[in-house]
Design goal:
The protein is mainly alpha-helical and 296 residues long. Helices cover 74% and strands 0% of the residues.
Length: 296
């Protein structure tokens, strides 16, 4: 190895370490911010000057996420590993949410709103994050958390169905993105919208699991100095999850116009990370390390 190559490797290694530290700091800052934003009083007005129809962005996100979900679920069918089931199911929910966004940009339907809110705002992130929990932790930890997730999802489903008759569809306007008007359509917690109180719990668990797991896996590959494609791939996954988390926080703050570009960027980065981490540049027997192979 010549001096130029060594220097490039050192620069690459330092860049990766700096990126991992930065992502970790962002994650630590995001979690309390998400809790704060989730429980402060929310606005009941729409900024109509910034409201635009984002059907094209939703359509692109739908295509990416459905292909992504299909790829991951195919891995589950081939391997029967539970992490692929949770990742694939969560990603499929992501695709359903994007389809619901497209429908709601055309006309109102209460069940499309149900799909958009329940699968998107409530349980989606937690199910994707649970896949990472299955990858990184032993069965004695993953089994109880999986049971808890399923039970909590069923409770959330009951609360969501209880809130459905209280939805104020008269305030719906299909010329405005659903992410910008859902707060005035959904009942507040005092008037039957209890589901809004537990939504942040699912999202924080999912974000911490997925982002933290991706950062940790990337760090392990970086430390072992193996499979740089998986180092970069896991960083892209963490970055994509951070972007969608920030977009979600902005939406809760009343800046829903940022959700759609955040959704598309996140879908693109997550899928790109999946492709990179799935590559096998060398025969599998060349590496015997027991570190996690990838996040997806």
């Amino acid at each position: 190895m010549n001096k130029s190559t060594k220097k490039q490797n050192v620069i690459f290694s330092k860049f990766i370490l700096a990126a991992l530290i930065s992502l970790g700091v962002i994650l630590i800052a995001l979690l309390p911010l998400a809790i704060l934003v989730a429980y402060i009083p929310q606005q009941n007005e729409i900024n109509r000057n910034l409201s635009i129809n984002n059907t094209l962005l939703s359509l692109l996100s739908t295509g990416i996420m459905l292909v992504f979900a299909t790829s991951v679920l195919n891995k589950y069918l081939a391997s029967k590993k539970p992490q692929f089931f949770y990742w694939g199911t969560g990603l499929l929910m992501f695709g359903i949410v994007s389809l619901a966004e497209i429908f709601l940009s055309i006309t109102w339907n209460k069940w499309m709103f149900f799909f958009w809110y329940f699968f998107g705002a409530v349980i989606n992130a937690a199910w994707i994050g649970q896949g990472t929990v299955h990858l990184l932790f032993p069965k004695k930890w993953t089994s109880p958390t999986s049971v808890a997730l399923i039970l909590c999802s069923l409770i959330a489903l009951i609360l969501m169905l209880d809130a459905m008759p209280l939805i104020d569809s008269e305030k719906f306007n299909n010329s405005i993105s659903i992410s910008e008007q859902y707060q005035i359509i959904m009942p507040d917690p005092k008037n039957g919208g209890v589901i809004r109180l537990i939504t942040p719990i699912f999202n924080i668990y999912g974000a911490a699991s997925l982002i933290g797991g991706a950062i940790w896996s990337s760090y392990l590959f970086w430390r072992k100095k193996v499979l740089p494609n998986r180092v970069i791939g896991n960083i892209l996954i963490a970055l994509g999850a951070i972007i969608v988390s920030i977009a979600s926080i902005l939406t809760r703050m009343g800046l829903g116009e940022w959700w759609y570009i955040g959704e598309l960027l996140a879908a693109t980065l997550l899928f790109s990370g999946f492709i990179l981490t799935s590559r096998q540049p060398f025969p599998k027997h060349s590496y015997t390390t027991k570190i996690p192979t990838n996040i997806f």
